[in-house]
């Protein structure tokens, strides 16, 4: 059974002006220098960020969900066409587990793909490059979803929930009586 350790939970931060999603481990907040301090402590990005975060390019039509030590992200599918307004037309779901236990389990059982090499992104608004290296295990869905096929997504311990909005109701003030939820059971851990 999957249970999240409080020291390895995630925070997500979307920066709209620079088109980035930050996925940050809360373990940085359990460091003795921060926990035991009686004063405000400013910790520079270079001393905590690269090893305790991953940064992904955010596109308006992509979705990110975070729960415990896992993140779920709808990335544009490889080779997908870009439609009007630079929106990809097809997506795959990527479930990423940032728990050190998942990384250890990968080495023992080979489940998923280990992502332990640094990655670098360049925000659109600046010329500054951001490199991060927090390791994680990734599983990518076989199914390809088309743009607009679901409007919201979230997950719990063993299921994904994708809100399908056939009539534009979720974005309006009406009750979502004609919305459908697609529930996908995750494999055993």
Topology:
Layout (H helix, E strand, L loop, with lengths): L9 E6 L4 E6 L6 H4 L9 H8 E5 L6 E4 L2 E7 L13 E8 L2 H10 L3 E3 L3 E3 L8 E3 L3 E5 L4 E2 L5 E4 L3 E6 L15 E6 L4
Antiparallel strand pairs: 1-2, 2-3, 4-5, 5-6, 6-10, 6-11, 7-10, 8-9, 12-13, 13-14
- Main sheet properties: 6 strands, antiparallel
User: Low-confidence stretches at least 5 residues in length (pLDDT < 50)?
Assistant: 167-178
Percent range for β-strand residues: 35-45%
* Span between termini: 6 Å
- Structural class based on helices, strands and sheet pairing: mainly beta
Backbone shape: globular
Mean pLDDT figure: 75
Helix content: 10-25%
Written description of the protein model:
The protein contains 3 helices and 14 strands. Mean pLDDT is 75; it is low at 167-178. With 189 residues, it is mainly beta. The strands form 4 sheets. Strands 4, 5, 6, 7, 10 and 11 form a 6-stranded antiparallel sheet that branches. Strands 1-2-3 form a 3-stranded antiparallel sheet. A hairpin with a 2-residue loop joins strand 4 and strand 5 (70-76).
């Amino acid at each position: 059974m999957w249970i999240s350790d409080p020291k390895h939970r995630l925070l997500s931060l979307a920066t709209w002006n620079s088109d980035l999603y930050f996925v940050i481990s809360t373990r940085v907040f359990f460091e003795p220098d921060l926990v035991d301090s009686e004063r405000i402590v400013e910790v520079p990005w270079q001393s905590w960020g690269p090893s305790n975060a991953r940064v992904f390019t955010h596109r308006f039509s992509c979705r990110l969900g975070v729960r415990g030590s896992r993140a779920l992200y709808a990335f544009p599918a490889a080779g997908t066409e870009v439609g009007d307004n630079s929106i990809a037309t097809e997506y795959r779901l990527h479930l990423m587990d940032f728990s050190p236990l998942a990384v250890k389990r990968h080495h023992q059982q080979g489940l998923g793909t280990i992502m332990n090499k640094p990655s670098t992104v360049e925000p659109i608004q600046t010329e500054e490059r951001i490199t991060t290296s927090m390791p994680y295990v990734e599983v990518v869905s076989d199914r390809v979803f088309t743009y607009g096929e679901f409007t919201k997504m979230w997950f719990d311990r063993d299921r994904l929930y994708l809100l399908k909005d056939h009539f534009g109701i979720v974005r309006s003030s009406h009750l979502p009586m004609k919305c459908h939820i697609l529930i996908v059971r995750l494999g055993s851990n």
